[in-house]
């Protein structure tokens, strides 16, 4: 079983190239199945969730060809199966985007209830509400969400909860519905905008993505395109916080600084220097970190996907900090592991972490509970005194391309190992 071994203590210094956004690529793949023509998608991250999604699509008859590590060709001209039961789909969230895509194009879809990180109940009621408003019958049966419609008709839909997944799924289905759909109280995340841009480049008529209200005028067909996915703001934010936690100096390259405004604001607040240029951001942590308060919110608020990385930084800041998680109800699982590394963090009421800053972390054997919690624990281990062994890294590999290699290039002592012998070798090497 693969593990990371880490000897902490080196400040991270240097440049890191940020990959394409996983959470944009997943729905863009699904949207690519809405045209019979060939689509090329570039700047895709080479992470495990991409493979699972593409395998699931291939199981329905979609042709998927890797042009290179970061570019894929998708042709959905010969779909023979609108039921997506691929085993891997139970593990990832993005598979449910095939519902909106197939329903929009074929007026029928059956997709296994999605999995993804265990960070809360992760309801799908808003997806279902949106599909029903467009005229579909939707039921959940034998572990599948089944949606079917004679015709899809444009509708006025108010989302009761701001949801990235529901906004994208309903937007996709409405793209090929008859007439005008207006979706209100939409998610405004950059990946919502990316999917809309992709669909528009295929001939869709979507306006307002990135605001609270999206207007979609249905079209009969979509055509092929070439498209590049936006940079991953969460990967970028993770490296920016890695600079803060390790007292380093890191420049994240190939980013859209606007997407990182809330992250940048918090780094400034805790005492880091942040310099922005057109497509890169430099974070220098020369001073001791200062305490603060943060609440996660939908975009443009501070992202829930950055909450663990923020907590790991604040647990080394002087004074008491408070982190409130308002998006998912179970996103502090990593805290038990952080406490094992010497962090003084208490979770109250399930949604609030009270953090008393400590001088340092100490290395420990830790287990990754989910993707972002895992990345945050690795950052803690990079700052810790002594060695850490990190188990269950498959979660991290789902969403971060070459994570340990990028960290090595910034001067981190981290290796991916498979056996106890490898661990011993690492310990001898790092002393
Ligand atoms: C997406 O999940 C991301 N996943 C998550 O990233 C991210 O944390 C989340 O958006 C918020 O930004 C993918 O894009 C694959 P939501 P999603 O629907 O779409 C509630 C990562 O680490 N809700 O915006 O599932 C829900 O329970 C992952 O990369 C309903 O109540 O998130 C949650 O409390 C983890 N009913 C809130 O809305 C619904 O029908 C936000 O969820 C849908 C959602």
CATH class label of the largest domain: Alpha Beta
Q: List the bound ligands.
A: ligand EPZ
The main sheet comes to: 4 strands, mixed
What is the domain tally? 2
Per the CATH scheme, the topology name of the largest domain is UDP-n-acetylglucosamine1-carboxyvinyl-transferase, Chain
Structural class: alpha/beta
Q: Roughly what fraction of the amino acids lie in strands?
A: 15-25%
How many distinct beta strands? Answer: 24
Which term fits the overall shape? globular
Discrete helix count: 14
Q: In which range does the helix fraction lie? A: 25-40%
Strand order of the largest sheet: 22-23-1-24
Contiguous low-pLDDT stretches (5 residues minimum) are none
Rounded to the nearest angstrom, the radius of gyration is: 22 Å
Notable characteristics:
binds ligand EPZ, UDP-n-acetylglucosamine1-carboxyvinyl-transferase, Chain, 32% helix, 431 residues, 4-stranded mixed beta sheet, 24 strands
What would you note in describing this structure?
- The protein has helices at 22-32, 48-58, 97-106, 125-133, 164-175, 190-201, 233-245, 261-269, 307-314, 335-340, 371-383, 394-397, 403-409, 420-430; strands at 3-7, 13-17, 39-42, 63-68, 71-75, 83-84, 108-112, 137-141, 144-148, 156-158, 180-184, 205-207, 214-217, 225-228, 249-253, 273-276, 280-284, 293-295, 320-324, 344-348, 352-356, 365-367, 387-391, 413-417.
- The mean pLDDT is 96.
- Strands 22-23-1-24 form a four-stranded mixed beta sheet, sandwiched between helices.
- Strand 10, helix 5 (164-175) and strand 11 form a beta-alpha-beta unit.
- Helix 1 (22-32) runs parallel beside helix 2 (48-58), helix 1 (22-32) runs parallel beside helix 3 (97-106) and helix 1 packs parallel to helix 6.
- The chain is of the alpha/beta class and 431 residues long.
- The structure holds ligand EPZ.
- Ligand EPZ binds at residues 23, 26, 93-94, 117, 119-127, 161, 163-166, 187, 189, 304-305, 327-328, 371-372, 399.
């Amino acid at each position: 079983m693969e593990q990371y071994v880490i000897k902490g203590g080196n400040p991270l210094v240097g440049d890191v190239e940020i990959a394409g956004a996983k959470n944009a690529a997943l729905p863009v793949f699904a949207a690519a199945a809405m045209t019979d023509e060939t689509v090329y998608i570039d700047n895709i991250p080479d992470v495990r969730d991409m493979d699972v999604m593409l395998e699931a699509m291939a199981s329905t008859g979609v042709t998927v060809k890797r042009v290179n590590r970061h570019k894929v060709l998708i042709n959905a001209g010969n779909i023979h199966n609108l039921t997506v039961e691929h085993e891997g789909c139970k593990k990832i969230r993005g598979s449910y985007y095939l519902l909106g895509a197939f329903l929009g194009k074929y007026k029928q879809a059956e997709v296994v209830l999605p999995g993804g990180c265990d960070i809360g109940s992760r309801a799908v009621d808003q997806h279902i509400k949106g599909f029903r408003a467009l005229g579909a019958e939707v039921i959940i049966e034998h572990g599948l969400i089944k949606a079917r419609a004679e015709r899809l008709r444009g509708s006025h839909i108010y989302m009761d909860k701001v949801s990235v997944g529901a906004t994208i799924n309903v937007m996709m289905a409405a793209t090929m519905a008859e007439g005008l759909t207006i979706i209100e109280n939409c998610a405004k995340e950059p990946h919502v905008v990316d999917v809309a841009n992709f669909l528009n480049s295929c001939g869709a008529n979507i306006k307002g993505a990135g605001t609270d209200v999206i207007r979609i005028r249905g079209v009969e067909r979509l055509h092929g395109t070439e498209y590049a996915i936006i940079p991953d703001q969460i990967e970028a934010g993770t490296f920016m916080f890695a600079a803060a936690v390790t007292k380093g100096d890191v420049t994240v390259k190939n980013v859209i600084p606007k997407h990182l405004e809330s992250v940048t604001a918090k780094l400034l607040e805790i005492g880091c220097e942040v310099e922005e240029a057109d497509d890169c951001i430099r974070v220098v942590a020369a001073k001791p970190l200062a305490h603060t308060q943060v609440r996660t919110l939908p975009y443009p608020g501070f992202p829930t996907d950055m909450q663990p990385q923020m907590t790991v930084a604040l647990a080394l800041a002087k004074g008491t900090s408070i982190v409130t998680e308002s998006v998912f109800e179970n996103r502090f699982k990593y805290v038990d592991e952080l406490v094992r590394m010497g962090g003084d963090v208490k979770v109250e009421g399930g949604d609030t972490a009270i953090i008393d800053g400590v001088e340092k972390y100490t290395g420990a054997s830790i287990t990754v509970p989910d993707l972002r919690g895992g990345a945050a624990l690795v950052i803690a281990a990079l700052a810790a005194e002594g060695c850490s062994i990190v188990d269950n890294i498959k979660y991290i590999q789902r969403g971060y391309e070459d994570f340990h290699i990028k960290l090595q290039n910034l001067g981190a002592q981290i290796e991916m190992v498979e056996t106890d012998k490898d661990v011993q070798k690492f310990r001898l090497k790092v002393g």
